[in-house]
Design brief:
This protein is mostly helical. It has a single domain, classed as MFS general substrate transporter like domains (Growth Hormone, Chain: A). 76% of the residues lie in helices and 0% in strands. The longest helix is centred in the last third of the chain and has 30 residues. It starts with 16 loop residues before the first helix and ends with a helix.
Length: 483
């Protein structure tokens, strides 16, 4: 990881690398809850007694509501200022709201009278969505005030990748190798309740550290140095959509990627892949630990590309590599001996070697493409200041999140529809279900086919993204002259 952009040059609004790392924990805090809520379909179906169709409809509706709240919270963020900063109050409030609602959701829903259980679930889940929006809007907008150094902004991708991998990988290990054996599967309320307590505690610690990381930058005096203070209006959303071409292109590229990521990372798809196709659900947890270090090496390579050639080129390159590795993974998963993959040193064979190698390369590409868009939103925000003079990081982040979450809702709905077509009307696929030919090809389609389609669309749209390394140098130079 390049460290030439350390503070002290005087030309940029630099940050120390510990500040970038600490602030990235804000993303880890929200992703811990995102991983938790990835299992909410199993809680709602197995514990609360909702049908598969009802669960899919509720979760899709909640994802749409999540998207709608983004412009509202982003508007409030840009108009806010106080003694505790612009961003930190939203981070803390969001995390506390998520903690309260997650506990209520998993500890009380199944105890509520069945006639009011559905509206109760929807209301509490809606409260969770509000808290989630509060904290995620900051994740996508805080980069703007943290640093504008083109050598430093890609570094946030490294930390985001590492922490998100730790959040998902750690919870996968925790669920697959501790909670599932302890409670016997996803039909025990104790599994979900213990899981919630751990997430609430760890996510709160991450949030506090993230607030420390951005504290010195999240001050009115620092924000005023970034740009002239102006009144933010509702119609600014429409003006940005009309005139800021880079954010439009980035939204298209990232949202096709988001749809794919929502599908292949869906809890149900994970159960189908590891628990049925590979017949070894414990791998779902262990794979994150086994591949963590080499995956970060791949991510580090992506950061170097972004620092030397620009974030646009890095995103295009590694999305293309992702398509290639996903095609290879498809071939590997089609092998008859895929069920023999094992991390036991005495049972490691050739299929294990190839599966792990391609998984590392593929997961590294996924980490880069999923997390690179966050600093690129900051580039689009800088371009808006360059174009119109408006400093609206909250609005830019919210505008991006709105469409991003809408596509996530489509991804969730898509998986639900596929399950219904397959005949899973009353329950989701469970660990150890019989592997039929239909189930095998559906798993391959959801885990491999959809990502390839999404990434092809993403690469195609990036041809129209103009904020390459040369253009961002021009933008940054112009903004420094206006300070």
């Amino acid at each position: 990881m390049d460290t030439k952009g350390q503070p002290g040059g005087g030309h940029y609004n630099d940050a120390r690398y510990w500040q970038i790392g600490f602030f990235s924990l804000n993303n880890a805090a929200t992703n811990l809850y995102l991983a938790l809520m990835g299992y909410i379909s199993y809680y709602a179906n197995s514990i609360a007694g909702f049908s598969v169709m009802l669960v899919s409809c509720i979760l899709t509706g909640m994802n749409i509501f999540d998207a709608v709240t983004d412009p509202i919270v982003g508007f409030l963020l840009d108009r806010s200022k106080g003694r505790f900063g612009k961003f930190r109050p939203f981070m803390l409030a969001g995390n506390v709201i998520m903690a309260i609602s997650a506990v209520l959701l998993h500890f009380t829903t199944h105890e509520v009278n069945k006639y009011v259980r559905i509206p109760y679930f929807v209301i509490i889940y809606g409260l969770f969505v509000v808290g989630f929006t509060f904290q995620t809007v900051v994740a996508k907008s805080g980069q703007t005030i943290l640093t504008d150094n083109p050598k430093q902004r890609p570094v946030s991708t490294y930390f985001d990748s590492m922490f998100v991998m730790a959040a998902y990988g750690g919870t996968a290990v925790f669920v697959a190798n501790y909670l599932v054996p302890k409670y016997g599967g996803f039909t025990s309320k104790g599994l979900f309740q213990e899981y919630v307590i751990w997430v609430v505690a760890v996510s709160f610690i991450c949030t506090v550290l993230a607030m420390i990381g951005i504290a010195s930058k999240d001050k009115d005096s620092m924000i005023r140095r970034q740009s002239n203070v102006q009144k933010v209006r509702i119609r600014d959303y429409w003006e940005i959509i009309r005139h800021n071409k880079p954010i439009r292109v980035l939204i298209v590229a990232a949202c096709t990627n988001k749809f794919a990521a929502t599908v292949y990372s869906h809890t149900t798809v994970g159960v189908m892949l590891f628990g049925i196709l590979m017949n070894n659900y414990a791998i779902a947890g262990l794979i994150g630990i086994v591949t963590a270090l080499p995956t970060m090496i791949v991510v580090s390579l992506g950061i170097r590309v972004a620092q030397k050639m620009g974030q646009k080129r890095a995103l295009v390159w590694f999305t293309t590599f992702g398509i290639i590795f996903q095609l290879i993974m498809t071939v590997i998963l089609m092998q008859e001996n895929i069920t023999t993959v094992s991390f036991n040193p005495r049972r490691i064979n050739s299929i294990t070697f190839w599966f792990v190698l391609v998984y590392i390369l593929l997961n590294g590409c996924k980490s880069i493409t999923n997390n690179m868009v966050v600093p690129m939103i900051a580039d689009c925000s800088d371009y808006e200041r360059y174009r119109s003079g408006k400093f609206v990081p909250g609005l830019m982040g919210a505008l991006f999140s709105f469409v991003d979450k809408a596509f996530a809702a489509l991804g969730t709905a898509f998986v639900g529809v596929v399950m219904l077509v397959m005949g899973y009307n009353h329950r989701f696929p469970q660990i150890g279900d019989e592997l039929t030919l239909e189930l095998k090809w559906t798993t391959l389609f959801l885990y491999c086919g959809i990502p390839i389609i999404g990434w092809v669309c993403s690469v195609s749209s990036m041809k129209f993204y103009e904020l390459d390394k040369k253009k961002m140098f021009e933008v940054t130079k112009h903004l420094r002259r206006k300070r």
